Amino acid sequence: MFTFTEEQEMLRKVIREFVEAEVAPKAQEWDEANHCPVELFPMLGEMGIVGTFVPEEYGGAGLGFVERSICLEELARHSAGLAITVMAHQLCMGGILNFGSEEQKKKYLPDLATGKKIGSLSLTEATGGSNFMGQKSTGEYKDWQWVINGRKCFITNSHLADVDLWTVITGQNEKGKPIMTAFIIDKDTPGHTAGRTEHKLGLCSSNTGDVSCVNVKLSPQQMLSQEGDGPKIALSTIQEVGRAGMSAICLGILRGCLEESVKFSNERIIYGKPLNKLMNIQFTIAENKLDYESAKLLTYRAASMKDKGLPCACEFALAKYAGNEGAIRAAKRTIDMMGGYGVINEYPIGRFLRDTLAGSTAGGTSDILKVVIAAETLKG
Amino acid sequence: MALNIAVCIKSVPDPKWYEKITIDTKTKTITRKGIPSIINPVDKNALEAALKLKEQYGGKVTVLCMAPPGAKNELYEAMAMGADEAALLSDLAFAGADTLATSYTLAQGLNKLGKFDLVLTGTESADGATAQVPAQLAEWLNIPHLWNVKEFVLATEQEIHAKVKMDDAVGEYVIQLPALLAVSREINKPRYTTAMGVMKARKKTLTNLSKHDLDVNESLIGQVGSPTWSGDISIPSLARKGQELIGTPEEIVTQLIAKLRAAGIREGRGMVNDASGNLGSGRTDG
Predict the structure, then answer these.
(1) Partner-chain contact B194 A11, CB within 8 Å
(2) What local confidence, expressed as pLDDT, does residue A240 receive?
(3) Are A101 and A49 in contact (CB under 8 A)?
(4) Given an 8 Å threshold on Cβ–Cβ distance, is A14 in contact with B202?
(5) Which of A150, A154, A153 is nearest to A136 (CA)?
(6) What pLDDT is stored for residue B276 in this prediction?
């Protein structure tokens, strides 16, 4: 049975206080303006929110994934766009922390963990994200340098990142299978540019777009881990950092739906009584509560397993699936309950629905998650 | 010029839950069951002022609270904000204290903990809002005090220059240390508590003090030591009352004004346009 420690309860309280003061009042405005509030990053760094799981020696808070999930849930309760910006930034930090050399950790992590710089992970290509071994970007070793070429798409923080992790194909093995390798690319490296910006259905206060490399020359020191370690880095980072983060973000959106449904049904008077006196409205509240509590248990159980070093890919897949699908259901139910008010942008519930739909692909769609869950379950 | 600073905080019901708070008409006390507690908001300004002084001049910040055992969470939060240590004055014998008994107990707690150069408090609590404790505490400690301080600086090792907010003015004072200052919310913006602070807080010292640990006169603590008693308590009905006014628009306005006046709404002074179109101060004619 998972329970929070007193420190974790207090962490939630203080992060909530911060989010209610600095994020909640502006979340709708950011969404409408397609503005990613990067100006908050230094403050998020100071609070320990961006560098939650990075050890203190590299400038982070030195905490675990349960604490990270708490921070992301609280951010996403009011702005899932900001939360996914932080989550994508953490993908970059997670890759460097788990696979980087000591020199790379010392060079990159302190500025990333304190929010002075922003990170991203460029993995997905036009051919698909989940089929990542089919990617076309290449790395060629010539004249003592690696030359990187290719185009990545749907990259969160594409236009904001100071540090960009790339995966490319650097050759074929003896069986003819592609060898994938990861590199760290600094923002100002010649040939590394951000391309088109995507206009999304939701998560509008996050930045998503293309990133290209045209004859980008990197020293061998920019390689992350060893040649051929790309799949390991990509899978581990996406599954245990990305999917973990998206589980918490979906949970935050779900809590938003639950709290908005409770607030509206308490305040709205119909036929002389609060809406919550009607039994069908009580069903909506109960269903929203069930979706939230189920996803919460799954998310924090998976996060605590990660903190204990236990395998948890299936558990995070379960958590993200329950959270994302639950949030879609809860947002739709709440809009139905609110009637006309539900589609007015003055209320955040419509944004919650758009955000959860837009977030369904990050960290794996529900169908991909079912494949992961089934594969683990069928092992017996 | 390192300062030994004490900050007295109160644990109060979270204002976001005020609509859930009920009053027990038998015991004449607030029913707090299930209502989360927070640090009294203006006490965070007092703590922020203390932390800034410590950052500037060095020293130590100790936080003190008289409350049931659950208030340890507020004290840990204060230490997470940056206070060095904390003490909780908690004993059934302290229960039911009015402001006089509370301030006496706090004074004895401070005397137990050491000699402080400066004691900081908020101006008043969000729940009781009597604003009496700071002055009473200073009297028990036999030190000078200022209330509603909006700005202050440590001018010398022994002297603080402070600005005090008044109704239509600001008073400037010089106060000798040791002293007590009750600060207002405009003095600063309290810092946010960080994740790192939360984790460090549990490693700091929280001392529990009961009446046996303090040099107290038992006739001056708790309900026994409280000269103030709650009288009758009634809960006003907030039910909506609709009433239809019938007539021409002019008649309805006249009826409405009569009802407002009957309900005790006074005529006010306001800014009205004079005949020349200039804005001027005058009586509004309903």
Answers:
(1) no
(2) 84
(3) no
(4) no
(5) A150
(6) 45
pLDDT digits (tens, 9 = 90+) for A138-165: 999 999 999 999 999 999 999 999 999 9
Distance CA A260, CA A66 (A): 25
Q: Which residues on chain A are in Cβ contact (under 8 Å) with B199?
A: 7, 11, 61-63
Evaluate if residue B277 carries a pLDDT over 70.
no
The stretch B182-197 carries a mean pLDDT of: 96
- A15 neighbourhood in chain B, CB within 8 Å: 195
d(CA B78, CA B74): 6
Interval B243-271: pLDDT, tens: 889 999 999 999 999 998 888 887 665 44
Q: What is the mean pLDDT of residues B47-72?
A: 95
What is the pTM (predicted TM-score) of this model?
0.87
Tell if the CB–CB gap between A14 and B192 is shorter than 8 Å.
Answer: yes
CA distances from B34 to A17, A169, A377, B20 (A): 19, 58, 41, 9
Q: Is A171 helix (H, G, I), strand (E, B) or coil?
A: strand
CA-based diameter of chain A, in Å?
80
What does the alpha-carbon distance between residue B161 and residue A354 come to, in Å, rounded to a whole number?
55
pLDDT, average across residues A158-175? 94
Q: Range(s) for CATH 3.40.50.620 in chain B?
A: 3-220
Do B181 and B160 meet the contact criterion of CB atoms below 8 Å apart?
yes
DSSP A125: B
Nearest to B149 by CA among B129, B105, B179, B178: B179
DSSP state, B193? P
Please give the ipTM for the structure prediction.
Answer: 0.86
**B73 touches A: beta carbon within 8 Å:** yes
The H or E element containing residue A236 is helix A230-237
What are B66-74's contacts with CB under 8 Å, separation 24+? B66/B90, B66/B94, B66/B97, B66/B102, B66/B105, B66/B106, B66/B109, B67/B10, B67/B11, B68/B95, B69/B208, B70/B11, B70/B37, B71/B11, B71/B37, B72/B206, B73/A6, B73/A10, B73/B37, B74/B9, B74/B11, B74/B37, B74/B38, B74/B39
Residue A58 DSSP class: G
Q: Which residue has the higher pLDDT, B21 or A366?
A: A366
Residues facing residue B87 across a β-bridge: B64, B207
As a 3-state breakdown, chain B gives helix, strand, coil percent values, each rounded to 5, of 35, 30, 40
Radius of gyration of chain A (CA): 21
Q: Which CATH superfamily is domain B3-220 in?
A: HUPs (3.40.50.620)
User: Average of pLDDT values for A220-248?
Assistant: 93
Cα angle B180, B182, B188 (rounded to 5 degrees) comes to 120
Domains of chain A: 6-118 (1.10.540.10), 120-231 (2.40.110.10), 235-378 (1.20.140.10)
Of the candidates B50, B51, B17, B31, which has an alpha carbon nearest to the alpha carbon of residue B197?
B51
pLDDT tens, residue by residue, B205-223: 999 999 999 988 999 999 8
What's the token pair of residue A63? 């905490």
Q: Do B73 and A47 touch (CB under 8 A)?
A: no
Q: Would you say B120 and B183 are in contact if contact means Cβ atoms under 8 Å apart?
A: yes
- pLDDT tops 80 at residue B140: yes
Q: If we measure between CA atoms, which residue out of B243, B229, B119 comes closest to residue B177?
A: B119
